[in-house]
Write a sequence for this structure.
């Protein structure tokens, strides 16, 4: 009982630390999401951003801002302000979100995100290994700082995030390896396979990764020297 109480206190401290330093977050089941979207990278990035407005009940909230939280239910008419896109682009986005079963509209105007891809709070045991935390403030900052034409390329990085080493920011086969000599960086052929591109497009993929910017600032660098070749974010 004492051990359980100690563990609970430690977990509470961890979540307080995360909340104070990084803000609130939700869980994204990227395995299911990547499969559902078939590498539609722009839609992927915009959906991750949209989910930052979803509450614990999966309903989207926008307006009536209080204590850093939106309290009113988001309506379809809010989309243009939320995304900062043209009316024509919003119509296309709405169609894509619905056809891919990412969101659902209700008769009273409320909008819910699909729980197969989103969870805030408790995560199902069978989803733990396939999910990652997405921090609301971080993804919103990334969205606000990026230009519309950059969304597709930023989405490519989202697809590659499961391969990003947490200690060295290198795209590799061993994302949790601390020793940089053992991380096994991904080569272009392997990256093409992950992104579902033909191997003959290696030079194009390399160029696309190097051209990814957020607000004009480069996001990815390709390093090549005698000791190895790798992409670093």
């Amino acid at each position: 009982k004492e051990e359980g109480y100690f563990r609970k206190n430690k977990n509470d401290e961890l979540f307080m630390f995360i909340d104070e330093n990084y803000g609130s977050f939700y869980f994204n089941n990227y395995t299911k999401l990547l499969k559902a979207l078939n590498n539609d990278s722009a839609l992927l990035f915009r959906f991750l951003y949209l989910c930052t407005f979803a509450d614990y009940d999966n309903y989207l909230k926008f307006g009536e801002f209080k204590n850093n939280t939106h309290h009113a239910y988001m309506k379809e008419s809010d989309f243009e302000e939320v995304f900062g896109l043209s009316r024509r682009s919003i119509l296309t986005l709405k169609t894509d979100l619905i056809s891919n079963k990412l969101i659902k509209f209700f008769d009273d105007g409320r909008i819910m995100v699909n729980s197969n891809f989103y969870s805030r709070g408790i995560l199902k045991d069978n989803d733990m290994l396939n999910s990652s935390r997405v921090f609301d403030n971080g993804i919103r900052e990334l969205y606000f700082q990026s230009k519309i034409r950059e969304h597709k390329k930023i989405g490519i990085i989202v697809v590659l995030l499961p391969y990003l080493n947490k200690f060295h920011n290198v795209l590799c086969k061993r994302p949790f390896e601390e020793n940089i000599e053992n991380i096994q960086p991904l080569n272009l052929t392997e990256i093409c396979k992950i992104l579902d591109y033909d191997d003959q497009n290696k030079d194009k993929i390399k160029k696309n990764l190097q051209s990814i910017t957020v607000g004009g600032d480069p996001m990815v660098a390709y390093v090549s020297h005698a000791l190895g070749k790798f992409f670093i974010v």
